[in-house]
Amino acid sequence: MRTVNTNCYTADWKCLSDKDSTVNVQAEELFSRMSNSTVFSSPTWQMLAKDFIVENRRNYELNIYLGSELCGWLLISVGKEIIYKIESVTIRFVGYPLNDRMSFLLDSNMPDLISFMVNTLFKAPFFWDVAIFNELYDLDEKNRLDESLVCKSAIRTQWSENAVSPYIDLKFNSKLELYDSYSKSLKIRLRRAEKKINKKGEVEFKRLTPDIAEVDYYIDLIKSIEDKSWKGKKGVGLFSTEKDEKFFRAVAKSFAKQKWLDISFLYLDGKPISYRFGFSRHQTYYDYNLAFDDKFSKLSPGRLLLDKIIVSSLELGQKRVDSSRSSIKELHLLADCSKGIIKHHDLWIFKKTLKGYILFFIRVWLRNFINKKLKRNTR
Question: Could you give the domains of the chain?
């Protein structure tokens, strides 16, 4: 669509149509070399989000080359949305709002590449007021972004913490060592929950990395559990809407092909009562979503299933169990098992447009002014 040349890098923009559904092979190869990137940054996840999630927005693919080698890839959506009652043109990651932990697909051996990407965004062949990149977590990437953005005096930016993800590193030689690392209160809760559920019947744990042909069966099973949960009843489950269900079925099938799909079930007397829908990559299990049948809520099926996944991950030789994402106010259950956390941030980049200035004034300057006033009044 348009080529930008700066120093040794070349950037190509491409506006994607609905028919452009093929995953960029070079981008997948770049992703495979990046150990710090999660499945949410993968071209597979992003392209599926383009096909199933994004509506009424244009999608652009940015390819950055060093010679003929792809060293950077970005898939974004551009469109109008209402922010603070102002209709503005925004840039977002294509997978928003279903992404969890994101990073830019840029070759880590080229530290100046992130600055080139920022420059390229400002020279993009389309109009925008504000770029909002959600769920960024890599501190090195954040520092390099800050350095690139500070060098541009015309750019207004803001970082805000939006999520905290607990995790547990599995540096234990046995299940006994793992449990010894837990607090006394957690060990008591787990013992009581195990005793309580065992009194109700035979308990069975299943953890699966299904083949593509098996995915539909297990997604149907997951949905049947979710429909009986509070999430399903309130319509906020992973499979509550037709659009989301189609997306996650497609994700499950694509990830099953790459052996990333990792799902678990807890059964009571042969009946599935809880599930956890996750992904495994680079010896880390990401606990993306869970639900359980409300009738069994007093048996703590969610906590027990998580405990069994942690033990199973240890036995499988995985290095970490990660919550993927959780609310700042209501932490994931993994917070009871470990003090390890990863913070997620939103990056807002305000362009030098009228609405860009207005949004910056409201979101940053006005907020800071009100906070300072409140602090003075509480003294």
Answer: 2-155+351-377 (3.40.630), 167-341 (3.40.630.30)
